[in-house]
């Protein structure tokens, strides 16, 4: 029997309790009740004086305070002074990463997992401004970028932050630095054409091998072996390669294998358009290579001009953080302003807003600007909650406050679009991950921290010449 | 429909109006809420305009009675730090002390930033030199729209003398090694020498005031500041620069000091109160630090100083975009704790008083210029927008 010294045991227990003690507040509380004077569900009417019951990270019940039964053992937060709303969803961001782009053109084998920095200030800001979900993709300075990831702004490791790993790819139709539009598109097309040729080569070889095996079996008078190693037939809306069922997918170059996910329609792509002229080639490229059904266009603020083309394609869009596009007449220098979200709303194109992540351009503010430009409050809030959730394929999990959805709830001090409202507490999957009372940096930004010795009167100390020091 | 309202206005016109007796009522603007910045808030009000001036302000006013009806009306904004100048061409480069230079002499009225500023609701702006010289020159108050002639836009000429503390005044200067190579081989090259140049200029002015032989170019502009005939407006962002400016004010007994871009004034509330200086705040930064000398501006600074009785004006530094224009700065000041009334004053009447033009602009009062901002909703809310601007009685922006 092994002997464990008491000291070691106590040390171990202490370490364990310290570790788990530090995390305890963030682990999903089994049951949580949120009370609010008003609940903005984004799924029907607001609930006055309502209650949200959360169990195991999901919304178990939601309704008026006198109608919802609360578990007796649940922790209760909030109160009638607060407004509850769904957490905001950042449809696309390259923030919080080490550096957003690799300098190679085509890098589908990369993964932003290796670049996301959990202690980046960006994620702290997300909590402050009510963003509970972020789709992190590589930057726009690329041709075909690596895999993205949907995260929540909480956790000490990327894995802990992750909501959906290996999600999506960024593709850019606008030229990356050092490229012209022509070479950008050429590189993009050639990447997929080369990939197709490679698959054709593999399939051709596999067919030859199969024929050879068939002949050998015939000549040796034995039964042909089943080729267990073979893959499955290729599917896709763009192009397919015959004979892929004979190819073991492990034989495909792993640096290019992610392209197969795109062509076969399994991967979501975010296609960046840096000017209206990029939109039509982007859509044509997406259709030709089978990406269209799962593609979202990421638009520069001028791309509203191509709104008709986008509407016809049926694709969703993520807008630039600059919501008012200004065009200057080159002759008269008269400036024309276009409210971009209004254009897409009028055409029925599903769109999500993007924040530039600062107090002035965060998602709540972007939604408020939409209201200032005449959009309904519900639509404006939807463009930072349910609409991005749907674009990311997580409409059943996120974006509204409904029974069964992930409990991502903001407890605000007032209306979410009001200039004087703040996030008081943020709940992500049932855990309170942010409390403004403990947000030291926010206190510093808003209230300053009086420096020591900021006294009004300066005491002048004049040095008296000292004779004893003279030598 | 105009007639009944005109009749209703007549008593007001005869008792209150001073200047535009002959001018007939030209336009009517009504709103669900009129914020006059003169102590009144009218829930439902009508403003009558005649001869470019406000002829009457009366309660009541429903939509469609012969005038324009909007959700809310505030006075046109007054911007003390528009930063629309010709850059280096608007400031004397050969000399750190050029108090006699007139910034409006290098102003470009065709610069489209004026139109953007007007669109954002700013109807009056103080035009000064670029903040590159220790004492840059005289600033004048102009309207941001109207005819493309300076004399048509001028509200008050040479109303303020402008100077600079901090690092910007010494930027570009270098010490003399051997022989001076150009006129940038000069002081100041440090914050200390910036203060020294200021003090020397003020001292020389005191001497010039008593001795004709010691007069120098622009001494009278500095003398007017020492005599309190016009305010001295200095850029000082970091706490040490604000202290320097205040010590100088106290040393020379400057009657009126305005500290521009005073981000860190919140660190020295007692000193600011003691000195009686007025404060112009730079745009609120999202991550704490402002553009000028990295001054840290806490968002409750405006509220804190207003509560202490300090005159506080907000500024946009020329930003006219939806997220950072002067109206939005007022919203941000409210996010930092100011009430709507306090924020309104900080972008209208307070800056108008500081620039010495409160007799003409800054509030909605009979006899003042008819400069109005028309709103789609509650002023300064993120969900509201400036949908119209009235300048000297003309609807110059109409969205």
Brief descriptors of the model:
heterodimer; A: 471 residues; alpha/beta; seven-stranded mixed β-sheet; 19 strands; globular; B: 399 residues; eight-stranded mixed β-sheet; 11 helices; 27% helix; 23% strand
Give an account of the 3D structure.
The complex is a heterodimer of chains A (471) and B (399). Chain A has helices at residues 6-23, 121-128, 158-161, 181-220, 257-263, 276-288, 307-313, 340-347, 363-372, 377-382, 386-391, 440-447; strands at residues 31-39, 47-55, 58-64, 75-86, 88-93, 131-136, 144-147, 149-151, 162-164, 169-172, 269-273, 295-299, 316-318, 324-328, 335-339, 351-352, 409-412, 423-428, 431-435. Chain A is α/β, with parallel strands linked by helices and 471 residues long. In chain A, the strands form 4 sheets. In chain A, strands 3-2-1-4-17-18-19 form a 7-stranded mixed β-sheet, with no helix packed on it. A 6-stranded mixed β-sheet of chain A has the order 7-10-11-12-13-16. A 4-stranded mixed β-sheet of chain A has the order 5-6-8-9. The radius of gyration of chain A is 28 Å and the shape is globular. Chain B has 399 residues and is α/β, with parallel strands linked by helices. Chain B has helices at residues 2-16, 113-119, 150-153, 191-210, 219-226, 239-252, 269-275, 301-307, 326-335, 340-347, 349-354; strands at residues 27-35, 41-50, 53-59, 68-75, 77-79, 122-127, 135-143, 154-164, 232-235, 257-260, 278-281, 312-314, 372-375, 386-391, 394-398. In chain B, strands 5-6-7-8-9-10-11-12 form an 8-stranded mixed β-sheet. The interface between A and B is large, with 32 and 39 residues.
The mean pLDDT of chain A is 88
Strand runs of chain B, count: 15
Which regions of chain A are unreliable across 5 or more consecutive residues at pLDDT < 50? Answer: 4-28
Strand order of the largest sheet of chain A: 3-2-1-4-17-18-19
Strand content of chain B: 15-25%
> What is the structural class of chain A?
alpha/beta
Instruction: Please bin the fraction of helical residues of chain B.
Output: 25-40%
- Structural shape of chain A: globular
| Percent of residues in beta strands of chain A | 15-25%
């Amino acid at each position: 029997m092994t002997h464990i010294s008491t000291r070691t045991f106590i040390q171990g227990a202490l370490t364990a309790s310290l570790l788990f003690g530090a995390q305890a507040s963030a682990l999903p509380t089994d049951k949580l009740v949120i009370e609010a004077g008003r609940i903005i569900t984004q799924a029907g009417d607001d609930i006055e004086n309502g209650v949200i019951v959360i169990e195991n990270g999901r919304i178990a019940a939601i309704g008026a305070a006198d109608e919802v039964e609360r578990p007796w053992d649940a922790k209760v937060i909030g109160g009638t002074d607060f407004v509850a709303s769904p957490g905001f969803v950042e449809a696309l961001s390259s923030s919080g990463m080490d550096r957003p782009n690799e300098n190679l053109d085509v890098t589908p084998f990369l993964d932003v997992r290796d670049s996301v920095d959990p202690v980046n200030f960006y994620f702290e800001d997300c909590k402050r401004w009510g963003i509970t979900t972020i789709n992190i993709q590589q930057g726009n300075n690329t041709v075909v970028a690596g895999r993205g990831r949907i995260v929540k702004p909480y956790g000490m490791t990327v894995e802990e932050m992750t909501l959906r790993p290996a999600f999506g790819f960024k593709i850019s139709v606008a030229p990356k630095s050092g490229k012209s539009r022509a070479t950008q598109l050429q590189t993009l097309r050639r990447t997929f054409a080369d990939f197709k040729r490679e698959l054709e080569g593999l399939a051709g070889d596999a067919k030859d091998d199969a024929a050879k095996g068939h002949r050998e079996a015939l000549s040796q008078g034995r039964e042909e072996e089943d080729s267990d190693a073979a893959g499955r037939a290729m599917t896709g809306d763009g192009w397919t390669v015959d004979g892929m069922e004979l190819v073991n997918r492990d034989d495909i170059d792993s640096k290019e294998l992610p392209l197969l996910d795109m062509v076969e329609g399994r991967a979501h792509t975010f296609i960046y358009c840096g000017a209206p002229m990029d939109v039509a080639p982007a859509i044509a490229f997406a259709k030709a290579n089978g990406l269209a059904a799962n593609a979202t266009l990421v638009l520069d603020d001028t791309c509203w001009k191509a709104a008709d083309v986008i509407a016809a394609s049926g694709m969703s869009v993520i807008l630039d953080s600059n919501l008012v596009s200004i065009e200057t007449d080159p002759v008269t220098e008269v400036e024309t302003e276009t409210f971009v979200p209004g254009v897409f709303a009028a055409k029925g194109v599903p769109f999500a807003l993007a924040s530039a992540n600062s107090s002035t351009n965060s998602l709540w503010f972007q939604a408020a600007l939409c209201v200032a430009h005449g959009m309904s409050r519900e639509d404006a809030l939807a463009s930072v909650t349910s609409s991005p959730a749907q674009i990311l394929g997580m409409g059943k999990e996120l974006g509204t406050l409904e029974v069964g959805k992930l409990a991502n709830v903001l407890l605000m001090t007032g209306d979410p679009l009001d200039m004087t409202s703040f996030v008081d507490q943020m709940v992500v999957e049932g855990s309170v991950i942010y409390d403004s009372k403990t947000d030291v940096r926010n206190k510093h930004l808003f209230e300053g921290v009086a420096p020591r010795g900021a006294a009004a009167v300066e005491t002048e100390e004049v040095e008296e010449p000292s004779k004893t020091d003279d030598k | 429909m105009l007639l009944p309202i005109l009749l209703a206005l007549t008593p007001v016109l005869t008792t209150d109006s001073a200047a535009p007796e002959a001018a007939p009522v030209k336009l009517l603007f009504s709103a669900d809420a009129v914020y006059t910045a003169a102590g009144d808030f009218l829930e439902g009000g009508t403003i009558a305009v005649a001869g470019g001036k406000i002829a009457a302000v009366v309660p009541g006013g429903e939509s469609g009675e012969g005038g324009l009806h909007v959700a809310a009306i505030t006075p046109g904004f007054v911007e003390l730090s528009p930063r629309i100048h010709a850059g280096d061409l608007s400031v004397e480069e050969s000399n750190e002390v050029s108090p006699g230079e007139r910034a409006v002499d290098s102003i470009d009225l065709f610069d489209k930033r004026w139109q953007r500023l007007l669109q954002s609701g700013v109807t009056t702006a103080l035009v000064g030199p670029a903040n590159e010289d220790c004492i840059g020159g005289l600033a004048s108050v102009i309207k941001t729209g109207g005819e493309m002639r300076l004399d048509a836009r001028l509200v008050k000429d040479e109303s303020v003398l402008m100077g600079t503390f901090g690092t910007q005044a010494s930027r570009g200067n270098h010490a003399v090694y051997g022989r001076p190579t150009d006129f940038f081989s000069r002081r100041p090259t440090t914050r200390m020498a910036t203060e020294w140049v200021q003090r020397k200029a003020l001292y020389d002015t005191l001497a010039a005031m008593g001795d004709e032989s010691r007069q120098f170019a622009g001494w009278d502009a500095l003398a007017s500041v020492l005599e309190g005939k016009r305010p001295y407006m200095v850029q000082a962002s970091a706490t040490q620069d604000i202290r320097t400016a205040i010590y100088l004010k106290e040393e020379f007994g400057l009657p009126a000091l305005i500290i521009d871009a005073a981000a860190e004034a919140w660190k020295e509330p007692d000193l600011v109160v003691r000195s009686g200086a007025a404060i112009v705040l730079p745009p609120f930064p999202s991550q704490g630090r402002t553009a000028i000398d990295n001054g840290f501006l806490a968002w409750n600074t405006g509220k804190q100083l207003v509560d202490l009785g300090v005159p506080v004006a907000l500024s946009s530094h020329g930003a006219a975009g939806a997220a950072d224009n002067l109206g939005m700065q007022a919203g941000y000041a409210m996010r930092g704790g100011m009430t709507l009334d306090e924020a309104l004053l900080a972008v209208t009447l307070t800056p108008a008083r500081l620039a010495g033009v409160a007799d003409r602009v800054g509030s909605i009062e009979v006899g003042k210029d008819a400069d109005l901002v028309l709103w789609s909703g509650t002023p300064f809310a993120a969900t509201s927008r400036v949908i119209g601007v009235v300048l000297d009685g003309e609807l110059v922006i109409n969205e």
